[in-house]
């Protein structure tokens, strides 16, 4: 049996995969990766336009990051969370240094869902209130409270799980839930809707507003001008904790350390994971404001994880942040968005009748596909099976040319590593351009 068939056989016999009907999937066996590429066992090379699950911000197998993990492993692999350790403190300090000025403490988790779970717990204990407001177009993770806060269809089969979450509509200029005609109107109407939701739910019952600074999997929805500042103002007015979920948007993805920097807004809690160490080891966390940290000065925080601040994971975060700084990765990501992806996608949009909208910033872009001039989505919301065929055909056309795309419902997200070269990026966009002729055939 070849290695590839052995990998497939073991996988199909014993691995239970996330989000999947186990009998209907055929996972691609991957042997190795480097930079912006990965290879399957037959030697076929793919340009990674997905950054896996939008987490390999620094690229695959960065040698300095690999070496930092090896070095830490040789010294100290694990200690329990109640101890202090050089890399744990250094990682927390470095994250606090790039966070807004009043966020100075970090609670480490193993990933994004746990970060949101604990941020909500902190907000509830800090305010003494129980409700959480989050948007319909959102994903916050698959643990109990995080999946309940999630707005997208992944929540539905899991319900009921947790209580106390109320969903509202965030801004989405292209398909405005408020029938707005421009971004300013969208921002104002979305804020009025949020204010109404707060008033009608009872401000005194609401602990937190949890939003993705830039909505990720649900469409790369960049907040219109004034929106985030407006959310901040509503939180201040009603004594609500503002939690910015930057699990996907943070650490370079938007051409900033944290996406909130783009709008100069300071939330009370920021949740992060993915890009902090590009997922080389599981790591996430919550950056905490001085005011909320103060709540837990004398009073114990009633939560914890065996692997909180795991030495290998935090050592990889320290190395990753050094690499970000020394290699100018944040600036590179910003340049890629401004000078390459934005202009190239605008040309692609002008050429293809199937492209309804392109939007994004940094290396965080969506191409939204439609089948007519009425903006009818190329496939329905939550499409699966036969309904998803047009998007599957576009994805297949990309893969055939060696491009691994990120596809969600009627959108292709352009989310390569923040370190991708201009040449590789242009090559990937050219493949996408060609593949979109398949989408055009459905219009
Ligand atoms: N929040 C956002 C915005 C995400 O995109 C994700 C994952 O994609 C999560 C939370 C959950 O993170 P994890 O899968 O590490 O639990």
From TrEMBL:
Q: Name one GO cellular component term.
A: cytosol
The protein's matches in NCBIfam families, at most eight in alphabetical order, are given as: PRK06062.1
Organism source for this protein? Actinoplanes lutulentus
Task: Describe the family membership recorded for this protein in Swiss-Prot or TrEMBL.
Answer: Belongs to the class-III pyridoxal-phosphate-dependent aminotransferase family.
Q: Which domain of life is it from?
A: Bacteria
The protein in question is named: Taurine--2-oxoglutarate transaminase
Molecular-function GO term, any one: transaminase activity
UniProt keyword annotations, A-Z: Pyridoxal phosphate
């Amino acid at each position: 049996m070849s290695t590839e068939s052995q990998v497939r056989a073991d996988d199909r016999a014993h691995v239970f995969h996330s989000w999947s009907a186990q009998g209907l999937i055929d996972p691609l066996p991957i042997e190795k990766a480097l930079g912006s590429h990965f290879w399957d066992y037959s030697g076929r090379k793919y340009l990674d336009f997905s950054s896996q699950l939008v987490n390999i911000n620094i690229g695959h197998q960065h040698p300095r990051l690999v070496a930092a993990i090896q070095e830490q492993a040789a010294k100290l692999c694990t200690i329990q969370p109640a101890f202090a350790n050089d890399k744990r403190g250094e990682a927390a300090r470095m994250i606090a240094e790039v966070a807004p000025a009043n966020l100075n403490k970090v609670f480490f988790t193993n990933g994004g869902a746990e970060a949101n779970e604990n941020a909500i717990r902190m907000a509830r204990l800090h305010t003494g209130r129980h409700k959480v407001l989050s948007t319909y177009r959102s994903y916050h993770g698959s643990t109990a409270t995080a999946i309940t806060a999630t707005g997208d269809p992944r929540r539905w089969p899991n319900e009921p799980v947790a209580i106390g979450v109320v969903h509202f509509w965030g801004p989405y200029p292209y398909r405005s839930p408020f029938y707005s005609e421009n971004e300013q109107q969208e921002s104002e109407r979305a804020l009025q809707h949020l204010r109404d939701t707060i008033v009608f739910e009872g401000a005194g019952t609401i602990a937190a507003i949890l939003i993705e600074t830039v909505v990720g999997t649900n469409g790369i929805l960049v907040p219109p001008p004034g929106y985030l500042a407006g959310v901040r103002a509503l939180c201040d007015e009603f004594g609500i904790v503002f939690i910015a979920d930057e699990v996907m948007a943070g650490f370079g993805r938007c051409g900033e350390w944290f996406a909130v920097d783009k709008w100069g807004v300071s939330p009370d809690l920021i949740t992060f994971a993915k890009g902090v160490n590009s997922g080389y080891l599981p790591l996430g966390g919550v950056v905490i404001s001085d005011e909320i940290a103060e709540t837990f000065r004398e009073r114990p925080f009633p939560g914890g994880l065996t692997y909180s601040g795991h030495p290998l994971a935090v050592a990889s975060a320290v190395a990753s942040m050094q690499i970000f700084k020394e290699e100018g990765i944040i600036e590179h990501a910003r340049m890629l968005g401004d000078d390459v992806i934005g202009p190239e996608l605008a040309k692609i949009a002008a050429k293809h009748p199937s492209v309804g909208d392109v939007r994004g910033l940094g290396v965080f872009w969506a191409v939204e596909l439609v089948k007519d001039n009425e903006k009818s989505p190329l496939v329905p919301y939550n499409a699966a099976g036969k309904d998803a065929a047009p998007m599957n055909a576009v994805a297949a056309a990309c893969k055939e040319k060696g491009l691994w795309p990120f596809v969600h419902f009627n959108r292709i997200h352009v989310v390569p590593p923040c370190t991708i070269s201009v040449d590789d990026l242009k090559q990937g966009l050219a493949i996408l351009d060609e593949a979109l002729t398949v989408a055009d055939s459905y219009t």
